[in-house]
Amino acid sequence: MKEVDELDRKILRALESNADLANKVLADQIGLSPSACLRRVSRLKEMGAIKKIVAVVDPNCYERKLSVVVSVKFERHGIQARQDFFNQLKREKAVVQCYMVTGEVGSIIILNVADMEEYTEFTDRLFNEDPNVSAFTTFMVMSKLM
């Protein structure tokens, strides 16, 4: 990846906070002309610094109102075993975020599910039937603070 400078970092921070900013507003915030700002944003996308633009949707606005955080422990930590697990997660519509982490657990997964029945089906299919998952712990989200 090419080097990003301080102006690029300002653009990234602003877009990370609000990716819906109009180019003129973003340019004004950063202190660039709109055309220079647009060129930088395009370059940041091309080089992969901006991976994608997404909308953070309130789960209460659609059928997936139950948010769940799951920590997963693995039997084996080899590259292929982890990749197989993460590839399977990518196909699941309930998965909002997934992190490979350090410490006692191998992965933290954020889910939005419709109800406990869907969560149980998810855990049976992805955790209980996977011989590489040695344990998992579920945390039901009571409220989102940030």
Automatic annotation (TrEMBL):
Residues 4-60 form the HTH asnC-type domain. Keywords: DNA-binding, Transcription, Transcription regulation. The keyword Transmembrane helix does not apply. One of its GO terms (molecular function) is sequence-specific DNA binding. SMART domains: HTH_ASNC. One of its GO terms (cellular component) is cytosol. It comes from the Bacteria. GO terms for biological process: regulation of DNA-templated transcription; response to amino acid. PANTHER family: LEUCINE-RESPONSIVE REGULATORY PROTEIN, TRANSCRIPTIONAL REGULATOR AZLB. This is Leucine-responsive regulatory protein. It comes from Falsiruegeria litorea R37.
